[in-house]
TrEMBL record:
Record Pfam families: Acyl-CoA_dh_1
Keyword annotations: FAD, Flavoprotein, Oxidoreductase
Originating organism: Mycobacterium bourgelatii
Span of domain Acyl-CoA dehydrogenase/oxidase C-terminal: 194-326
Alphabetical list of SUPFAM superfamilies matching this protein: Acyl-CoA dehydrogenase C-terminal domain-like (SSF47203), Acyl-CoA dehydrogenase NM domain-like (SSF56645)
Record InterPro entries: AcylCo_DH-like_C (IPR036250), AcylCo_DH/oxidase_C (IPR009075), AcylCoA_DH/ox_N_sf (IPR037069), AcylCoA_DH/oxidase_NM_dom_sf (IPR009100)
Cofactor or coenzyme needed: FAD
Gene Ontology terms for molecular function: acyl-CoA dehydrogenase activity; flavin adenine dinucleotide binding
Family classification: Belongs to the acyl-CoA dehydrogenase family.
Protein name as catalogued: Acyl-CoA dehydrogenase
Keyword Oxidoreductase included in the entry's annotation: yes
Amino acid sequence: MLLELDDDQRLWRETVQRAVAKQCPASLVRAIADGGADADGLWQWYRDEGWTELFTAESFLELAMVLEELGRASDPTPFLATTTQFAPLIGDEFDPKQSGAAVYTGVTAHRDGNGWVLDGAARFVLDGDRGQRLAVVTDAGVFVVDGDRVSARRVAVFDPVLHVADLLFDGVRVGEVDRIVADAERARHIALTGMAIHTVGACRRILEMVLLHVKERHQFGVAIGSFQAIQHKAADMHVAIERARALSYFAALTIATDDPRRRLASVMAKAAAGEAQSHVVRHGMQCFGAMGLTWENDLQFAVKRARAGELLLGGAAEHRAVIAKEYRAADF
């Protein structure tokens, strides 16, 4: 497995960085948070550029680079949920022009004549309120349901541009044609890896803003970045980010090459990303001081996205427990 990017991949990463900086600036994110704009135009741009077509295993490394940059930009669209949660569950039936969300737990399916009936409630579904289609995981398989057939309520979360919803399935009838056979375990590996890389991108943004701030902020006649305590915090942030980034891209490579190590690699990546955001958010807020807590400071968007990335799909402690159980089961 080659861990270095080739020339084409490096060019792709640079292209994505420039495009995201232009199409999804902090001013747009702030306007959406303030209610003065929406994300429809940006989502349409992603689709027109073909970014939503990067859902196959072979293109997952390229998708990972997009996800990292969108995490850095606090992307307000349903891109993350659509490409890393919904698409892996429905496979070849995925339409890159439509948004989607995944429901992993809380819903049951039972036979009713020639069809099925879905019942239950799913909490904290990423983009569940605006996904045009839903992939619902049940014991009877994965069902694809139109989003407007489900009662959805967006819940308040600390990231103002992130959509998280509670969904109610009250006797939703679906046909046998809506049931697909999917590798839900593999789809979860992709979802975990995508969330990890997205979180790493948000952490990168925090560190970048901190480095810029400590160079400009002066105390006692010198830049505070010259203080050893600040330098130590920045170094710790960098190490945590690079560790999580390396594990996330390794997990992406295992998915791209269908390596069986992806099961553990994805869990390790999510745990490392959660640990990284803990260090980065704490040190970042300390380096900024009280001004980092204000609404006027763009630091808030990266901090909130990093925090959300830790909580969605399970926190670091949960995934560390999975890793520990895995190694206890091994016969050394």
